[in-house]
Amino acid sequence: MADNEITIKTAQEPDKPQWDTYILNHPNATPYHLWAWKQAIETAYGHRATYLLAQKNNNISGVLPLFQLRLAPFINQLVSLPYCDVGNCLADDSATQDMLLNQAIRLKHNTKSTTLHLRGDLTPAAAADHHFNRINTGKVRLILNLPSTSQALFNSFKSKLRSQVRKAEKNGVQFRWGHLADIDAAYHVFAKNMHELGSPVHSKTFLREVLSRFSNRAKIGLAEYNGKTIGMGIILATDNKISIPWASTLRVYNRLAPNMLLYWNFLKFSSDNGFQLFDFGRSTMGEGTYKFKQQWGAKPIPLIWYDAVNTPSNKAPHPQNGTHANREHLSAAWRKLPLTLATRIGPQVRKYINL
């Protein structure tokens, strides 16, 4: 191979260490880019992954992880990446990005996928400009820059927020870090909350696989009251960034402020262990979840996604931008299902909802 020649290949299991090293050293990477996300989805849901790896001078110069979500004849999508906000192409330069994006277009053609969906911003370049439409989702990510100590972070909060954090402890709610053995109790909280929100729940197997595959880069936190688990959250880490894909509490106990205790302990851990950023995930500006995340000091960053041109997804509203009325009708119907039934069939539906 000539010097500076870029080659593209599909990464295999032996490439995992090199892949993860590249992710951990890339400034725009998220925990979802790590190989563990691939392993968890493949094991829990069986979706086919194609992780494209670019090399220059025998070193990785870019990656593009892709999953095919296929349920013939209804669904055939390529997504980078499913079940998260940001999991797009990472590259050292625009030339590498172009080659990865062009290979993704070929993969779309070869798999006869109707959609190629990328989550995260791209560097303006030939392939990005010609093959993809830039989609402003109307959502934002809320990112908090962390100080070096939790005490400094706590001192930065307004007095009202500090009081809310203390309220949970005064009410007798306790926080502890959980383990895989706690997954049943945590999942009960998660499944019940998702049912009340009117949304199909991820499978317990998927959450268990995420915790297992990420190993020490994943932690599960629990809020307990009188020995009962009333809140849960899972955080994932790179070397400098924490993301929180899931957090739930039992609504009947929300007056005790378990959610405040959960998030404070996640932020406390992040600050005291040298992490620089805390990613609260996506929200719509002005809505309740946005205000909750903003009160901790998080700042909004527009969430930009891309779709390949000439796909049905560009001729109709995106699922995340569907009409409020349609979402409410579906949610209301799902809430009417018995919890046990919703929990049993929910994962079979959820695995094909790429968000």
From TrEMBL:
<keyword id="KW-0573">Peptidoglycan synthesis</keyword>
<feature type="domain" description="BioF2-like acetyltransferase">
    <location>
        <begin position="156"/>
        <end position="293"/>
    </location>
</feature>
<dbReference type="GO" id="GO:0009252">
    <property type="term" value="P:peptidoglycan biosynthetic process"/>
</dbReference>
<keyword id="KW-0808">Transferase</keyword>
<keyword id="KW-0961">Cell wall biogenesis/degradation</keyword>
<dbReference type="GO" id="GO:0008360">
    <property type="term" value="P:regulation of cell shape"/>
</dbReference>
<comment type="similarity">
    <text>Belongs to the FemABX family.</text>
</comment>
<keyword id="KW-0012">Acyltransferase</keyword>
<protein>
    <submittedName>
        <fullName>FemAB family PEP-CTERM system-associated protein</fullName>
    </submittedName>
</protein>
<dbReference type="InterPro" id="IPR017469">
    <property type="entry name" value="PEP-CTERM_FemAB-rel"/>
</dbReference>
<keyword id="KW-0133">Cell shape</keyword>
<dbReference type="GO" id="GO:0071555">
    <property type="term" value="P:cell wall organization"/>
</dbReference>
<dbReference type="InterPro" id="IPR050644">
    <property type="entry name" value="PG_Glycine_Bridge_Synth"/>
</dbReference>
<dbReference type="Pfam" id="PF13480">
    <property type="entry name" value="Acetyltransf_6"/>
</dbReference>
<dbReference type="InterPro" id="IPR016181">
    <property type="entry name" value="Acyl_CoA_acyltransferase"/>
</dbReference>
<dbReference type="GO" id="GO:0016755">
    <property type="term" value="F:aminoacyltransferase activity"/>
</dbReference>
<dbReference type="InterPro" id="IPR003447">
    <property type="entry name" value="FEMABX"/>
</dbReference>
<dbReference type="InterPro" id="IPR038740">
    <property type="entry name" value="BioF2-like_GNAT_dom"/>
</dbReference>
